[in-house]
Design goal:
The structure holds 2 protein chains of 2 kinds. By secondary structure, chain A is mostly helical. Helices cover 85% and strands 0% of the residues of chain A. Chain A is built from 11 helices and no strands. By secondary structure, chain B is of the alpha/beta class. Chain B contains 8 helices and 10 strands. Chain B starts with a strand and ends with a helix. Classes of the chains: A mainly alpha, B alpha/beta. Chains A and B meet through helix 1 and helix 4 of A and helix 2 of B.
């Protein structure tokens, strides 16, 4: 077996027993169950889930990822002293953690839907889009976490950077976009808005989910411009491609930093 | 076995190592000593490939270290403060280390027996005491019968009987031709174990020679005091 796969296997075993990962899965399980009881239909449950996924998944991935990497520093040093390449070790550590968090999210959301059933046509398709977006956000923000935790030697700076980045993408960004849109309301802004959206992975995931749910009103300013400009199918393809780039970029930067770092 | 030529390392404004030239011969125990912050750990980490020197070269068995990891098949490492994944058991950690080296036959499990670790290995690491983790870490360093062992303050957290067992092991393996590179603060331990002491002070080699010589030169029992003594002598 490949070295990275061996690291992944041990890490999955570690994570499956982690109380935090369990709590994360249980949260989604409980929350979905609650939504089913109060909202009834599958579509409305999904609609309510969207914003929770957009806020919580990036937060947990980036915070848990940095905490995990700083916390494993001593063990990573021991592994680096073994005969294996830094690239493989990084790949193994990253994949193991991202897969554990994405798995916990998918199990937490998946079980209530499996129990309650779809109810309406098209719910499973929407659920699939939500699952994909949640998984991709996990991969993107775990990648950012690994980059941050490798780049900053000082863990306080690392935690600070992680929280700031999450605040910027998940909370502040949309507000700034609105202010910009208001200030330049007299100019054609569509291209600018779409560019702004491509620069934020959380926005991209939001647009992907809401294009599927067909509720443009909830999409925020960038999302609305996006749909007008591209229409649903091309827009979704572009958003997905941009999200994949957001996955690859931070992971590549993290890998580069990990290869060069003095441990 | 290992040779350092003009090794320099600087972190920001701090010169940690200022041109170290050293040779560690096969089948010997070399202790790297010196006060906190003198560059001991950085030196060991450079040999392990965890830290890359800014200048200078390190040769392992005649070959320069160039980022290739294969030489570490012949290296065992016992870190100063071992930490393992909390939710795994000691046995699982050892299994991972074996797995990463391709599960070689004939591993050296002598220390596991000497420390009577068997009943502890099935418990999650987070429930183990610092000393027990240290024992697991020591056993792991010897597991693959490496030619070179790098031990960072190996006896620091161990009780007297475990410490004695580890020292016996080191002396036995030295006799079998293995090369040791260890750091320690305890003068009696250096005398007992090492053929040679390298005394670092502010990132430079201040003394390299037999442990007895250092003790005699300074007349101190503790390395911190020996360092103080050496510095005073330098000033006067």
């Amino acid at each position: 077996m490949n070295t990275a796969a061996k690291v992944v296997r041990y890490e999955l075993r570690d994570m499956v027993r982690s109380r935090w990962v369990l709590a994360y899965a249980l949260f989604f399980l409980g929350f979905c169950e609650l939504l089913f009881r109060t909202q009834g239909s599958g579509t409305r449950v999904l609609l309510s889930l969207v914003n929770v996924v957009l806020l919580l998944v990036p937060l947990v991935a980036i915070v848990f990822g940095t905490v995990y990497l700083y916390g494993s520093r001593a063990f990573i040093e021991l592994l680096l002293a073994q005969p294996l390449s830094r690239g493989r070790l990084f790949a193994g550590l990253y994949s193991g953690l991202a897969a554990s968090l994405a798995g916990a999210f998918l199990v937490g959301v998946g079980i209530p839907f499996a129990v309650h059933g779809a109810g309406e046509p098209g719910v499973y398709g929407t659920l699939l889009v939500l699952a994909l977006c949640g998984a991709l956000l996990t991969f993107v923000f775990t990648g950012l976490a690994f980059w941050i935790a490798t780049h900053f030697e000082d863990r306080l700076k690392g935690f600070g950077a992680a929280i700031l980045l999450w605040l910027a993408f998940a909370i502040v960004y949309d507000g700034v976009v609105l202010v910009v849109a208001g200030a330049f309301a007299d100019y054609p802004l569509e291209r600018a808005m779409i560019t702004l959206m491509l620069l934020n992975p959380v926005d991209l995931a939001r647009v992907l989910m809401l294009l599927r749910l067909d509720v443009a009103a909830l999409m925020g300013y960038t999302g609305a411009a996006f749909e007008r400009f591209f229409g649903s199918a091309a827009g979704a393809a572009l958003a997905l491609a941009a999200l994949l780039a957001w996955w690859a970029g931070p992971v590549a930067l993290g890998l580069r930093a990990f290869r060069r770092k003095d441990f | 076995m290992i040779r350092l030529e003009g090794v320099c390392k600087r972190y920001g404004r701090l010169d940690v190592l200022k041109g170290i030239d050293l040779e560690f011969e096969a089948g010997t125990v070399t202790a790297v000593a010196g006060p906190n912050g003198s560059g001991k750990s950085t030196l060991l980490r450079i040999v392990l490939g965890l830290v890359r020197p800014d200048h200078g070269r390190v040769y392992f068995d005649g070959r320069p270290l160039n980022g290739d990891w294969r030489y570490r098949e012949r290296v065992g490492y016992m870190p100063q403060a071992p930490a393992f994944p909390e939710n795994l058991t000691g046995a699982e950690v050892l299994a991972l280390l074996k797995d990463l080296r391709g599960n070689p036959a004939g591993t050296d499990e002598e220390l596991l027996d000497a420390f009577a670790l068997a009943p502890e290995l099935d418990k999650p690491v987070r429930t183990l005491s610092t000393g027990t983790r240290q024992k697991v870490s020591a056993a792991a360093a010897f597991l693959f019968r490496p030619d070179v062992l790098v031990l960072d303050e190996p006896t620091a957290g161990l009780d007297p009987s475990a410490s004695a067992a580890l020292k016996d092991k080191i002396l036995r393996e030295k006799a079998a031709g293995r090369t040791f590179l260890l750091s320690s603060h305890i003068m009696s331990e250096l005398e007992e174990l090492s053929d040679r002491v390298v005394f670092l002070l502010d990132g430079a080699v201040r003394y390299a020679g037999p442990a007895l010589g250092l003790a005699a030169e300074t007349g101190q029992v503790n390395l911190e005091r020996a360092a103080a003594q050496l510095m005073r002598r330098e000033a006067s």
